[in-house]
Amino acid sequence: SEMREIKKLPARIESLEEKQAALHTNMAELDFYRRPPEEIAAATKQLKELEQEISNAYERWEYLESIESAG
User: Fold this and answer.
1) How far apart are CA 11 and CA 8, in angstroms?
2) Is the distance from CB of 27 to CB of 46 less than 8 angstroms?
3) Cβ(40)–Cβ(32) under 8 Å?
4) Which of 12, 22, 38, 68 has the fewest CB atoms within 10 Å, i.e. the most exposed one?
5) Helix, strand or coil, per DSSP, at residue 31
C-alpha cells in the first residue's frame, strides 16, 4: 500500500544517495580518467541512472505525502 511505500522511501533514497556519493568519490580519484573507456562510460551511465532513480524517488515521496495530507 501507499502507506508502506512512503515509510520505505526515505531508506531507499538514503541508499541510492550513498551509492551516488561512493561513485562520485570513485570518479574524483586522480587516476579515474586513466582507466579503460568502458569503465568510465559504465560509471558515468551508472551515475546518470542513480540520479534519475533518486529524482523519481523524491517525486514519488512528494506525491504520496500530498495524497496523505489531502486525505
Assistant:
1) 6
2) no
3) yes
4) 38
5) coil
Give, for all 71 residues of the chain, the pLDDT tens digit: 888 999 999 999 999 999 999 999 999 999 999 999 999 999 999 999 999 999 999 999 999 999 888 87
Are the CB atoms for 5 and 68 separated by under 8 Å? no
| Helix H or strand E encompassing 16 | helix 2-28
Predicted TM-score (pTM) of the model is: 0.88
Q: What are phi and psi of 31, to 5 degrees?
A: -90, 5
Cβ count near 61 (within 10 Å): 17
